[in-house]
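ligand=S-adenosylmethionine
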Amino acid sequence: MYEIYDHYASEYDALISHEDHENNLYNTLRDRFHWHGATIVEAGIGTGRVTRTYIDLVSQVLGFDRSEHMLEEAARNLAPWVGKLRLGPAEHTALPLPDGVADIFIEGWAFGHVAVDRPDETQAVARELISEAERVTKQSGTIVLIETLGTNTDEPAAPLPVLSHFYRALEEEHGFIHDVIRTDYLFDSPDQAEELCGFFFGKEMRDAVRARDDVNVPEFTGIWVRAQRAPGRTHR
Ligand SMILES: C[S@@+](CC[C@H](N)C(=O)[O-])C[C@H]1O[C@@H](n2cnc3c(N)ncnc32)[C@H](O)[C@@H]1O
């Protein structure tokens, strides 16, 4: 997937343009959080798909990603809001920001990559990612993490054991609670479903989507949320 993020941002965008055709992510994010006039820090902003759900409401977005290629696509996609957008290259764990700037810290489908890269260190990964998110978030702020609970599956579940461990660490060690939404894809044809899902998720998914032979590919997504000042926690 890193090769895709470094070289195929527009193809990635083509895939996700078919995702969440029922707008459940958009509706959930807009209903649940107080975006008006807020400063948002978004890690792993990619091509700006999550950003597009809230940017019209907020005061400013500080968006980061390790891939310059994805950031270029984000800048194109988010051009109508250029006056309130600052984009820059950064790792999730080294955001070039002072402490306590964000009313809302958000990431979508981006933290899980770090857990997958370091499967034997899930708890340390969760600690590093959450401590940087906490650092840049105001004491009154909220941390929102959006991660996969499976594509082309009929029940929500972490698609890899390492992600299941990571999600458990978020909940048991960092006090997050999560909701599950559907973010089903709707493609123009079964062939397009097979091609775009195969391009991003690989051969096994290509074969499974071909076997489904449908324009609809079901998907589940988890939204993990915590107030910065969570009960029983001490912060600097
Ligand atoms: C699946 S994409 C999600 C992009 C966007 N949030 C979205 O919802 O479409 C994952 C993004 O996270 C970025 N990423 C992965 N690991 C990262 C890391 N350790 N630090 C910064 N960015 C990272 C990738 O470059 C990619 O743009």
